[in-house]
Amino acid sequence: MNATRDGLREKVFPYVSYRGKFYPIIPVIIEDREKAIVHALVDSGATISLFHISIAEDIGIDLGDAEEVYLAGIGGYVKAYIKKQVKISVEELGSTMIPIAFTEYITSDTAILGRQGFFEAFEITFREWERKLIMRSRKT
Hints:
mainly beta
């Protein structure tokens, strides 16, 4: 369902069944020299977005100048490469530049969209009781 409210574009994403449970997973387009559609979990508990390293390779992102870091999570520390400005687009809501950490220590079938950059570009409402994610573009 799509709408415009208060002059801003709005999109409702139903939660997706993934491994037997329902999650706020949305399709995003990540681009550099090439583009790819990636299904990503919108995660308010994650500081930075996290994508599998193969996605960077597939779309031509050069990780040679990326910042090498070790990210802490529930499972311990994982090695990742952070690119500060990666373009992503959300269906009908527009695009933004966000930092993304690329690592081999995440499943390649789902990425994570964290707060940094992403939650600043969109108004995000989780409606757990309805299994819906409502997003509004913050750009006028």
